[in-house]
Amino acid sequence: MAIKIEKLKEEKKRGILKFMLKGSNEVFANSIRRLIIEEVPTLAIEDIEIKENSSALFDEMLALRIGLIPIKTDLKSYTSKEKCKCEGVGCAQCELKITLKTNKKGYVYASEAESADPKCTFVYEKMPIVKLLPKQKLDLTMTAVLNNGREHTKWTPGWAFYKKEPVITINKVKNPELIAQKSTDNVFTLKNKKLELNEDRIYDSNLLEYYAELDGGISLEYTDNILFTLESWGQLSCKEILHKSSEIFLEKIEEMEKLI
Ligand SMILES: [Zn+2]
After folding, report:
1. What is the spatial distance between Cα 160 and Cα 63, in angstroms, rounded to a whole number?
2. Which of 13, 149, 164, 257 is the most exposed place for a label (fewest CB within 10 A)?
3. pLDDT at 142 over 80
């Protein structure tokens, strides 16, 4: 059976994509999940030259914070230092410079940093970096590089998880009121003293096993389809993450083929 992907929900602004994987299995879903978390590359700050930091945060703490700020990543323009033509020396293809200079009292936000590449800036403008008191200053030159989550978690593009597709059926329920009352996620509601199932809530529910335990009249089964959820941290869109993970998958298979 050929693999099929059915899109269930996409929230582009929040960077969430949910889809159903049909004709596949958990081994394949897990390979994609691990490729996303460990291998899909993004840009993150790796080096910081601190010319001045009179804020309350130590240099090390400030650097750690900045390293975790997501940067919009253009995979077509950047390459990792290992694969770059400059052989790791550092050039415009493998390094991105971002500067931050301010002495303004109050919170310093990610939007105040200036990137040498307008396509690749900090993703969340309102992300606070540090708070400055009067006469405190910050003057930083940061270098972002392309790398992956296996090297450090700051390069992970998002979070991915999956579960098997649940199917709920209502048979003879002893106490419909109790089930409706316990159903805080609105999977079940009461209508004319009868229990009603809200199909569109099932996939998001974490209480299905609890309902089945609570009343023998509710049966829970799983199909072979896989519900896959992907949440992007913002560096790449969900689609870009999936494309890149499949590309890496193919590269690995081709590499293996050559070795056989
Ligand atoms: Zn280079």
Report:
1. 27
2. 13
3. yes
Q: What are 229's two structure tokens?
A: 């959820």
The Cα 163–Cα 18 span in angstroms is 11
* Dist. CA 144 → ligand 1 center (Å): 12
Alpha carbon of 183 to ligand 1 centroid (Å): 56
Query: Distance from the CA of 175 to the center of ligand 1, in angstroms?
Result: 67
Whether residue 136 is found in the same domain as residue 163: no
Q: How many residues does the chain have?
A: 260
**How many angstroms is it from 82 CA to the middle of ligand 1?**
8
Tens digit of each residue's pLDDT (9 = 90 or more) over 36-76: 999 999 999 999 999 999 999 999 999 999 999 999 999 99
137 CA to middle of ligand 1, Å?
32
Which domain range does residue 177 map to? 4-38+158-230
DSSP 144: E
pLDDT level of residue 223 (50, 70, 90 thresholds): very high
CA 83 to centroid of ligand 1, rounded, Å: 8
Mean pLDDT of the chain: 95
State the greatest distance between any 2 C-alpha atoms of the chain, in Å, as a whole number.
Answer: 73
Same-domain pairing of 135 and 217: no
CATH number at residue 16: 3.30.1360.10
Instruction: Report, as an integer, the average pLDDT of 192-213.
Output: 92
